Amino acid sequence: MSKDTGSEIGLQLDEGRFLVEISRRAITEYLKTRKIMQPPPDTPPKLFMNSGVFVTLRKHATGELRGCIGFPEPTSRLIDATITSAIEAATGDPRFPPVTLKELNELTIEVSVLTPPQLIDASPEEIPKRIVIGVDGLIVSRGSRRGLLLPQVAVEWNWDQEEFLANCSMKAGLPPDGWLLKGTKIFKFQAEIFREKSPNGPVEKA
């Protein structure tokens, strides 16, 4: 993890659309055969770079979360991490029962491609000032505890910076003010977000 410098990924809409479509294909194939698909021959070259990624499933009718799993850090090739995250979001999120093939037709898929997490190297009172709502996602880390929230979560819940930090602390299993405790580390990252407008429908860049 690097210090607070900021960076961009630079995926084109076609590349993001490919990730969303491959996520749906990977889930479908796994639910039918229990096999993990391999990257297809027409995978765009940029998707073989290492990158963090999260795949989010939502009920189209209500927008309700149905699964979200991913890799915070660029430890795997983006295409491989996306396939794995998609399958895990559908079948391995401990908050939800596994998705069924029939239900998949009622879900939209969102892929968030992450920049490497950057340490916010600042005093506690300065940390909120370093966070831009709607742009930055957060990781709160303390010992073995770790919580991550994607940039879009703060917007969906209309949180300010301190509410975002408090909720990310609770995601890590810490009290709401856990981010203020000595020894807690705060990282931020950005994301390029691609999502279906409807199940198996057109893909847009958020």
Question: What brief labels describe this structure?
Answer:
206 residues, alpha+beta, Glycoprotein, Type 4 Pilin, Dna Ligase, domain 1, 2 domains, nine-stranded mixed sheet, 27% helix
Describe the 3D structure.
The chain has two domains: 2-115 and 190-205, 2-Layer Sandwich (Glycoprotein, Type 4 Pilin); 118-189, Hypothetical protein ph0010, domain 2 (Dna Ligase, domain 1, 2-Layer Sandwich). The protein is globular. A hairpin with a 2-residue loop joins strand 6 and strand 7 (145-149). The protein has helices at residues 13-33, 78-91, 101-104, 151-156, 161-171, and strands at residues 2-3, 52-59, 65-71, 107-114, 118-119, 136-142, 145-149, 185-196, 203-205. With 206 residues, it is of the alpha+beta class. Strands 1, 2, 3, 4, 5, 6, 7, 8 and 9 form a nine-stranded mixed beta sheet that branches. Helix 1 (13-33) packs across helix 2 (78-91). It starts with a strand and ends with a strand. The model has no long low-confidence stretch (mean pLDDT 95).
